[in-house]
Amino acid sequence: MATPFEVRLDGATFSGEADGFGLPVVFLHADVADKRMWAEQMEVLADAGFHVISYDRRGFGETTSPDVPFNHLDDLEAILDQLSIHAAVFVGASMGGALAIDFAIENPERTVGLVLVGTGLSGAAEAELPEEAEMIYDALHYAEDRGNTASVNKMMAHLWLDGPLSPNGRVDGPARELFLDMNGKALSKQGSLTQEEDRDPAEDAVGAIEAPTLLVVGELDFPHILERHSDLSEEMENSFAVVLEDSAHLPSLEKPELFNPLLLEFLDAVAGHSDVGDEEEDDEEE
């Protein structure tokens, strides 16, 4: 069972969880979620012999922060340092994937591998959306202007959980309930942090990443995210790309039975070429 932890940094208190021993695997959540989106993967990987870590970024979940200048990349580096994690595999979804890419560019020696799920990309141009998604966003902005957060949350679930071109409510049950709770918490904190610093654009540097990379995307995701997935598979020489059927932006939450075996197979391959986990275990024995 994952153990909660807190990291204090510049007035912020980061809420996280950790479990297991072995090669560190750090999970970075999407902007419509929090660390709970990875709960099932955390349990599966800990049982398989990995040291798993997840945390809520500023503005999400249970993490609290004053309104001060900050950068998610600086936060990630500081959290890893405080947890004495020198190097890890980073599993990032959406903007969590963008953060993982930025970390790998800035810290290649600390990046054992990457798993990028429907990934964002820092500095990417604003996407051209399909007409159906534009209509939903128009309604979303109308509700937002009137402070109807519950309606905003439901429309975001349609866009990001069901998929922008899929029927509303395609995904139901516990996955939808969790999405609405996670994104609802993020929406409740919206506007509380006004001083986030921009990170350098990653588009021109992503091809230099040498770490082994698993690229995953749901076939029902936004068209521009599917296109980015294809582009990255060509630009990142040491990558393997997979499109998961009948899933949208959060396949790890929607289709864990498809996602988890892929993740485990990739991590087993990476762990076979890495001694990071062995080094940490040796340090603990000393």
From TrEMBL:
One of its GO terms (molecular function) is hydrolase activity. InterPro entries: AB_hydrolase_1, AB_hydrolase_fold, AB_hydrolase_sf, Epox_hydrolase-like. Coiled coil: none annotated. SUPFAM superfamilies: alpha/beta-Hydrolases. It comes from the Bacteria. GO terms for cellular component: membrane. Pfam families: Abhydrolase_1. Gene3D superfamilies: alpha/beta hydrolase (3.40.50.1820). The keyword Hydrolase applies. The keyword Hydrolase applies. Signal peptide: none annotated. Keywords: Hydrolase. This is Alpha/beta hydrolase. It comes from Paradevosia tibetensis. The lineage of its organism: Bacteria, Pseudomonadati, Pseudomonadota, Alphaproteobacteria, Hyphomicrobiales.
